[in-house]
Amino acid sequence: MKMLGSEAIIECLKREGVDLIFGYPGGAVLTLYDAIHKLQLPHILTRHEQGAVHAADGYARATGKTGVCFATSGPGGTNLVTGIANAYMDSVPIVAITGQVSVDLIGKDSFQEADICGITTPITKHNYLVKKPEELTRVLKEAFYIASTGRPGPVVVDVSKDVFNAVIDFEYPEEISLRGYSPVFAGEEESIDQLVEVMKKAKKPLIFVGGGVVLSDTSNELRKLTELTGFPVTTSIMGLGTIPSDDPNCLGMLGMHGTYVANMGAVDCDFLLGIGVRFDDRVTGLVKKFASNAYIAHMDIDKAEVNKNVLVDLKVVGDLKWSLPLLLDKIEKSNPEKYRENVKEWMTQIKEWQQEVPLPQTYPTTDEGILPEKIITEVSNITGGDATLVTDVGQHQMWAAQYSKFIKPRSFFTSGGLGAMGYGLPAAMGAKFGIPQEQVILFTGDGSIMMNCQELSTIADNDLPLKIIVLNNEVLGMVHQWQRMFYGGRYIHSTTKGKTDLVKLAEAMGVTAFRIEKEEELVAGLRKALIEIKGPVLVDIVIPQTANVLPMVPPGSRLDQMILGGKD
Fold first, then answer.
1. Using one digit for the tens of pLDDT, what is the confidence trace for 476-507?
2. Catalytic option among 7, 11, 49, 221
3. Residue 38 CB contacts under 8 Å (≥ 6 apart), including other chains
4. Is 49 annotated as catalytic?
5. Distance between CA atoms of 450 and 138, rounded to whole angstroms?
6. What is the C-alpha separation between 377 and 404, in angstroms, rounded?
7. What global pTM score does this model have?
């Protein structure tokens, strides 16, 4: 079957089950876009390439499938870089297809030429420059295989303009085998046996869960593990939703802005089991003092993560789909009641810490505005936790993580590793396209939303019923907080001065919007946005400038050296 290279790409995407592309056309990819028209594959025109890649990211997280985005050569490809880096840090499967100048023009500083493969090598799982038409289908098959297997991640396929225009004999490989790439699925069963023996003896255990549990769809296994053993569980920000917020064994989030009980538990535990986590610096605090009294075990698919940040006593390398069911089976055969008996005193201590410094709590402020924890809590009350939450990066991100109610996995998406402001709006858009039957709510700040606010136009054009809640304090909130706490209150270039009317901005792009300034307006306003208005809506809510995200572990401090606020 003969077809153009551009048509072959669309046919390959169809065979991979791709049902939606995000992108932005340009000169080098016009033949590719013509093929979209011919072969009728749905495509969303974003207003910026960064919007396209973040949307593909949100789509992938929401659906569990590989997200796809298109961009042209030169600035089109370079505008994808932040989103590619974000997907790489958070292990999100994306295939980004970019155009490149003709083969005879590569390396000559041609118009709209950029070495996108060279640029993205450190931030991709793999990348390709396709200069030969006969390699195209094989490369695409490999790209999807690499992106979605093992530890997921982004793959860039940079295609020369010649290849789009070339006529090829289409043949799509049914199977793929890559020399040097063998995703690890099953590990050594002996390591599971060792883990069970250690767990039997633990008196003060703590399970620490990360995004790997979400990616591997093993939240049910995790929940069964906690039921069998009675062990308490804390999560990274990427692990939120893996265990319900109201589960008696759930301690909330660990780390810099983690709960008091989770941080104290990590300090005092005698056994810590990390499952699908990176032991990021925002979680560990002072690394040499992290869980310093504990025997540490680490379960992860990527052996490169083991002993990278925290030295562990036992490693269990393998896909969690293999290791967690096997661990459960062995625990069930080893008298689970014994585990629960061992932790009775420890759970008494856990409950004391929870009562001593609970969440949520009110942090007094002299500024006018609605306290952010009140906003987040009311949203959870309205939705019952049955919504998919997306955040940008900053104070609102942490408040959403702390105060939201979670009842299911894949219900909280954020830029965890890279911390990219501007992620939220396009990622929420991508998530909503991927799961149209679910309610998707974006929490963002007046700083973050401006970085990709152009995607409000994309949302309006598609009449996408996304709910956008802006926590507006007219400052770059987290920067402002650090300047207040650690830089003597010298607020250098962190005040936005409130000159931008976000309601008018949204309305100008076709999105319904309104502002809430008083607490007595809050519940009715949120119900209006989340329930009564059926289309897209932006709610601009005034919050105090001096509201802090607390608790907070200062950088370089131990997890028990938390700033709690008030008299503490």
1. 999 999 999 999 999 999 998 878 999 999 99
2. 49
3. 7, 10
4. yes
5. 40
6. 6
7. 0.96
Nearest to 387 by CA among 218, 220, 529: 529
The residues facing 130 across adjacent strands are 159
Question: d(Cα 370, Cα 374) in Å, to the nearest integer?
Answer: 7
310: nearest Cα among 364, 274, 352:
274
CA distance 42 to 463: 16
- Residue 181 tokens read as 């790439």
135 is catalytic: no
pLDDT at 41 over 60: yes
State the amino acid at position 515 in one-letter form: R
Contact residues for 278 (Cβ-Cβ < 8 A; gap 6+) = 210, 236, 305, 308, 309, 417
- Catalytic-labelled residue, pool 141, 161, 405, 432: 161
Model pLDDT, residue 398? 97
Number of other CB atoms surrounding residue 19 within 10 Å? 15
- Active-site residue flag, 111: yes
Three-state SS at 168: strand
Sheet (strand 250-253) strand order: 250-253, 233-235, 205-209, 271-275, 295-300, 314-317
The pair of structure tokens assigned to 281 is 């610096």
Residue type, 419: G
Alpha-carbon radius of gyration of the chain: 24
Helix residue ranges, H only, 166-204: 189-201
The token pair at 12 is 């390959």
**Helix and strand tally (H, E) in the chain?**
23, 20
